[in-house]
Amino acid sequence: MHTKFGRLCVTRANVNHLGSITIVTKLLDEVGVLPLEEVDTINFNKILTMKIFFLPMSS
To answer: pTM, whole model, 2 decimals?
Structure first.
């Protein structure tokens, strides 16, 4: 693991779409995450782990 985002807040969700997280491109560049890179996500409230992809979003 080369990057860890902690305690992220969901600002928008689409219940019909599962499998990606959109993050501002500037933040992805600063931490070294490549667009479309596969990442593991953990929902501690539901004890759920998923493999998803980061999608770049213009700032």
So the answer is: 0.52
